[in-house]
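Tokens as discussed.
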């Protein structure tokens, strides 16, 4: 187990903005940073990071927490794995409290078995490439023939799987990996027997990494031409590998994409590798599959600018149109680049320097309108019918763009290229938009089941006011708990105290409890800390390994909006900091909560009065209590009015 001292060192050193910045493109927004949610498909950024408080909050999904919980959510790490990842990133030496038992190791192995066996496979394939005669003569010779340097081969962790039918499976089984794990990972195929064979035998191997560098799956290329087998083979879908949701090279390229604010999109593994070797590192591949919305959203987290690189193959170009439309729908800026005849990104990168490649891209990348028009006009030639079809095709693509201004600019450009009046194109665009709106409306109606309607109905029910006040109490504790405030006692005398002490004293004096069990648990933790002379605010809870409390703490501490400095600088409007209103907020919130408590007790006594078997003495006693409590409630309402 990782020691408490090491955990504290990790939290003290790791910077949430640095770590999340590796996965999400963040921009300054007041004192916070903002970006698109990595957990949901959204067009308006609602993902917030607070460098000052070292927390994050995703307002589109409600998720939030600290640097560790982000890695757990995004990379599906366990708690220890997230800590170890951060320790490695920040060069922190890990101290163990005690050696893990065999049972604990087995439990961790089962939970992370697919990641572990994938990591083992990667190391095995790398070892086979460099340290065996077969690997050197076949695999390494192939990579060198492709012009890949030792540094490039190591950077992408390329490997080789031997020709022997079960070489890898045998090695994995000797290391203790069972049939179920090997089969689930797709590395071994067992069919109807207990004898497994290697999926990637006699192939060079391309490991496919996640954002953080974990191995998710593999691509394998066969080198022999005399066998009836697919040239390229990928890992099958598994719990950790979803081909449509990952881009090859994203781990090696993410920093360059952020730096250049542009992503080059290619088709194959070797395209990515050759461009990297040539010094062009902001490049990823869809791994030979048709581009998917999930892959586009992966790019969108890092940059809004995409250039698709094609080798000029006619069939590939036609197939690219759908990908372009998908990119436009996600509000990305897309350009297309065709290489000279006979060249693809791989071969072009092998023959040119970094400067020459960059210059070629800058001079030849064209927007999708000119690209599409150029391709289709050649097919249309002098046919008015085909030209009309071409125009409708281009207008359809423009109609997919959500941004109104972009649509208008593209219409103007199309008008010039196609020599057609703008009003004609706008009319066609309007018809496309109407059809699209109708289709979207019908789709939403079909997707809205009766069960979903029930959920919506439940959500629309009036908000529980008591829950709102309890949430406010917890927010005050977590966001301002250690703040010293000045309050008035029952005699009107001023006194100073911390927010935590005041809330604890008020709850204990009035025997109050929070109905929400999670909130009550947080309050009890705060009380325990207070008894130990420790003020436990949100910072304490975001470091806990308790998903519920961490999420509540991040919610309480994160402000979605911040006041612009222009209010005071340009408009001369000065607004008091929230901290100056805390005294009023505490008094107001506690008074409100007392009214709920009194209402509960009054209701309880009223229920007793309804019983037929109570005596007159008990009845009078309950009536007196109800009158007293009602009077107390009235005084609280008066006090509330004074506060307001």
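Sequence:
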């Amino acid at each position: 187990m990782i020691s408490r001292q090491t955990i504290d060192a990790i939290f003290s050193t790791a910077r949430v903005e640095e770590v999340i910045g590796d996965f999400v493109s963040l921009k300054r927004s007041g004192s916070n940073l903002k970006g698109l949610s990595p957990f949901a498909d959204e067009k308006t950024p609602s993902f917030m990071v607070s460098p000052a408080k070292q927390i994050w909050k995703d307002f589109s999904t409600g998720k939030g927490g600290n640097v560790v919980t982000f890695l757990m959510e995004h990379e599906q790490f366990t708690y220890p794995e997230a800590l170890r990842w951060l320790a490695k990133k920040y060069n922190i030496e890990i101290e163990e409290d005690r050696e893990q038992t065999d049972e604990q190791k087995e439990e961790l192995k089962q939970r992370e078995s697919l990641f572990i066996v994938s990591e083992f496979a990667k190391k095995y394939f790398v070892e086979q490439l460099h340290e065996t005669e077969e690997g050197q003569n076949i695999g390494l010779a192939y990579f060198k023939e492709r012009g890949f340097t030792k540094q490039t081969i190591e950077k992408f962790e390329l490997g080789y799987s031997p020709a022997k039918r079960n070489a890898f499976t045998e090695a994995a089984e000797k290391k203790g990996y069972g049939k179920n794990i090997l089969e689930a990972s797709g590395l071994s195929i067992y069919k109807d027997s207990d004898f497994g064979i290697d999926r990637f035998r006699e192939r060079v191997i391309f490991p496919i990494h996640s954002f953080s560098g974990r191995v998710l799956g593999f691509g394998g290329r066969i080198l022999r031409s005399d066998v009836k087998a697919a040239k390229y083979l990928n890992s099958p879908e598994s719990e950790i590998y979803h081909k449509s949701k990952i881009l090859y090279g994203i781990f090696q390229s993410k920093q360059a994409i952020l730096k250049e604010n542009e992503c080059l999109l290619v088709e194959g593994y070797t395209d990515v590798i050759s461009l990297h070797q040539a010094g062009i590192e902001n490049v990823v591949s869809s791994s030979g599959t048709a581009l998917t919305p999930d892959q586009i959203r992966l790019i969108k987290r890092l940059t809004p600018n995409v250039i698709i690189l094609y080798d000029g193959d006619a069939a590939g170009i036609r197939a690219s149109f759908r990908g372009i439309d998908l990119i436009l729908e996600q509000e990305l800026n897309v350009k297309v680049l065709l290489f000279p005849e006979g060249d693809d990104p791989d071969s072009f990168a092998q023959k040119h320097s970094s400067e020459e490649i960059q210059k070629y891209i800058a001079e030849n990348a064209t927007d999708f309108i000119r690209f599409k028009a150029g391709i289709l006009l050649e097919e249309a030639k002098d046919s008015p019918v085909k030209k009309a079809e071409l125009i409708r095709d281009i207008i359809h693509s423009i109609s997919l763009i959500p941004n109104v201004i972009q649509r208008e600019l593209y219409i103007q450009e199309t008008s010039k290229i196609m020599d057609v009046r703008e009003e004609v194109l706008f009319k066609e665009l309007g018809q496309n938009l109407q059809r699209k709106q109708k289709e979207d409306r019908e789709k939403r109606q079909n997707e809205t089941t009766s069960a979903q309607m029930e959920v919506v109905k439940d959500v629309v029910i009036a908000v529980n006011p008591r829950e709102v006040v309890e949430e406010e109490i917890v927010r005050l504790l977590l966001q301002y708990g250690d703040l010293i405030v000045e309050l008035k006692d029952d005699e009107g005398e001023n006194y100073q105290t911390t927010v935590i002490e005041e809330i604890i004293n008020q709850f204990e004096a009035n025997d109050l409890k929070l109905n929400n069990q999670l909130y009550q648990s947080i309050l009890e933790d705060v009380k325990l800390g207070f008894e130990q002379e420790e003020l436990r605010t949100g910072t304490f809870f975001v470091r806990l390994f308790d998903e519920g409390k961490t999420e509540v703490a991040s919610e309480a501490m994160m402000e979605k909006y911040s006041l612009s400095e222009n209010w005071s600088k340009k408009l001369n409007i000065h607004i008091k900091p929230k901290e100056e209103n805390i005294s009023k907020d505490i008094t107001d919130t506690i008074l409100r909560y007392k009214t709920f408590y009194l209402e509960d007790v009054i209701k309880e006594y009223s229920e007793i009065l309804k019983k037929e078997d109570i005596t007159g003495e008990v009845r009078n006693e309950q009536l007196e209590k109800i009158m007293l409590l009602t009077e107390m409630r009235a005084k609280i309402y008066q006090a509330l009015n004074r506060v307001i």
